Each structure stands twice: as structure tokens, then as C-alpha cells.
Amino acid sequence: MQYAIIKRLIKLVESSNINSLEIKETDFEISITKTPQTIAPTLPVTQAIHNSTAEQIQNHVPALESGKKPEQNDQVAIKSPMVGTFYSAPGQDSEPYVNTGDEIQKGTIICIIEAMKLMNEIESEVSGRITKILVANGQAVEYNQPLFMVKPIK
Questions:
Q1: CA atoms within 13 A on the CB side of 52
Q2: 3-state secondary structure of 73
Q3: What is the mean pLDDT of residues 61-70?
């Protein structure tokens, strides 16, 4: 299994509602378990995966953010929790989840990010007003890429 695929699997587990993932194949197996503050991949591998050790892989896994920090003008960036494709609506003929100027609450579904053929509903981590949508529908997004700017409600 390629290192890039392992990294994507770790990010997928990190950003989803599942707590662990286990894959077994003939020549290796991988188990990824999510804990409240960290992701601890366990790799009982019968042969080296591109000469990477579990410690090397774990060192490349980004730490979970504890919260969003205010940016310029007291705005908060809502960032992508994973690599994938951004969708602003649940379907082609559907209205977008949010538009510029909309007021949202913490937990409001604001978009979908498709990753590895899974549609992940992304919820807002803050309450406030959408001031800017930073990505276009169908655009590929990276992990931690800003998607929306929100002016928090105080």
C-alpha cells in the first residue's frame, strides 16, 4: 500500500464519525484508531511499506486543531477537514447549504466533501454569518484549506 494512500486513510478516519479502520491483505495489515485528541496508527506490517516505519508515518500526521482562531476583522475561517472535492449542495438540482450573508449555528451542515467515493457532510464549528465562500462547487480542496469566512456571533 502506498504511503499517500495510508495518509489519506488516516485523514479520512480523523474527519469521519468512525473510531477505527482495519484493512487486511495477504502481505500486510493496517489498523488506524482515533482517540479524542490524536490519531494513533498501528501498522503490524509483514514487509516494509516504502521503507517507512510507524513512527515516521505518525510524525507526518497533522495534530488535530483544538479550535478555530479569529482572523482579520474578527472573522473565522472554516477549513476543510480532509482532501477531496467540495460540493455546496446535496445534489445538482438542490439549493446550496449556505450562501454569503446566511446566519449559521454551530453544527449546521455547510457543505459536502467527497473523499474516496464517500460523501462527508461538513458541519460548522462556529455560529455566525457567512461573509465569504472561498471555493467553487466541484473544486478539489486540500486538508486545512479555508472554505468559508464567518463573522462569529458574540
A1: 18
A2: helix
A3: 36
pLDDT for the residue numbered 62: 36
Q: Are residues 24 and 78 in the same domain?
A: no
User: Residue 129 forms beta bridges with which residues?
Assistant: 103, 151
Domain range for residue 30?
3-60
pLDDT at 153 over 50: yes
Residue 15 pLDDT: 77
CATH of the domain at 114: 2.40.50.100
Q: Are 92 and 53 found together in one domain? A: no
What lies within 8 Å, CB to CB, of 102 at 6+ separation is 129, 130
Angle value at C-alpha 147, between 146 and 150, nearest 5 degrees:
90
Pick the closest to residue 113 from 135, 136, 133, 83 (CA basis): 83
* Residues 55 and 127 both lie in one domain: no
Residue 67 counted as domain residue? no
> Helices in 42-99 by DSSP H: which ranges?
54-60
In the structure grid, which three cell numbers stand for residue 104, read together?
449559521
| Closest to 9 measured CA to CA, from 52, 57, 71 | 57
Query: pTM here?
Result: 0.53
Spatial CA neighbour of 135 closest among 88, 103, 95: 88
The amino acid at 19? N
